[in-house]
Amino acid sequence: MAFQKTRLAPSPTGALHLGNARTFLLTWALARQQGWRIVLRIDDLDGPRIKPGADQQAIETLRWLGLDWDEGPYYQSHDLQPYFDALRHLAEQGLIYPCRCTRAEIEAASLSAPHAGEHELRYPGSCRPAQLVTADPALLGQPDLAWRIRVPDEPVEFSDRRAGQRRHDVQQEVGDFLVATKLGLPSYQLAVVVDDARQGITQVVRGDDLLSSTPRQLLLYRALGLGNVPQYTHLPLVVGPDGRRLAKRHGDTRIDHYRQQGVPAERIIALLARWSGLPAGDRLSAAEFLRHFDWDRLPADRVVFTTADDLWLASSPFAPPSSPFAPRK
Ligand code: GLU
């Protein structure tokens, strides 16, 4: 079988929580079981949301849990040239165009237009030139000027290893999406495709909140003339009791928070293992998880994190008793 490669790609926008940790553990175990190489990539282009130090913290947390990788960490922010080369290529072909629309303008214009019902607004095409025109690449990277790609009117089809056969009408869902933002930076969609392609990623494994991004990324592969489109695997997310993606509203589920309380990594892996179809146990190392993890037993549904899980972690037989005088956060 040809050489395969995947990536762990944390965004340093905050500390890793139980949901991120489960996705990374599963990606890692799948890769190690299948003999894929693993790249660690820090997706740090999301301007204002990036938290200083969160990259090192994520790396440390992954190591503490017992995960490892073969290449990296590579930082997206360290060299923007490959993204601008890709943008220039798209601009020269007239496939992207500059856009100055504000969010309020898009909101107003798309009130009557259909959109995906997700967080993202559908772009109604206000700045789209009527014809394919070569955009001036000198304008790339200019502040206050975003860039959008012309999305065709036909559906994109692909097969996801877990979600199965998919068909998305990207034009209906989000319209001409951003490839560069008004901060003069490449968008998440563009950066991920450029990186996955140049890093030789053949297997993308990530949370299913990114499933709807995949057809956009496939359109970019096509527009950039990149071959070797990866195989995609979208893992069901961990959600709170309200069915929403695990977040602050569900309490402090950061791995570092449990670690500070004295909860050992093996206790956390044991919970993640129970969430991944392995028999429940009091503790488990990442290496043991790897030995026993069975892809076919991975639950098909999203995992619900409850306060019982939180109590179970904190009641770890290995944790020192918590002091009633500990400062409350
Ligand atoms: N960095 C992204 C995130 O943490 C993942 C990127 C990807 O897997 O495509 O959500």
What this model shows, in words?
The protein is 32% helix and 15% strand. It has helices at 18-34, 54-65, 81-92, 103-109, 170-173, 188-198, 214-223, 255-260, 265-274, 286-292, 307-314, and strands at residues 5-8, 37-42, 71-75, 96-99, 146-149, 156-160, 164-168, 178-180, 203-207, 231-235, 238-239, 303-304. It has two domains: 5-78 and 237-314, Rossmann fold (3-Layer(aba) Sandwich), CATH 3.40.50; 81-195, HUPs (Rossmann fold), CATH 3.40.50. It has 329 residues and is α/β, with parallel strands linked by helices. It starts with a strand and ends in a 15-residue tail after the last helix. The strands form five sheets. It has a three-stranded parallel sheet. The model has no long low-confidence stretch (mean pLDDT 91). The protein is elongated, with a radius of gyration of 21 Å. The protein is built from eleven helices and twelve strands. The structure holds glutamic acid. Glutamic acid binds at residues 9-11, 43, 192, 206, 210. Residues 9-11, 43, 192, 206, 210 line the site of glutamic acid.
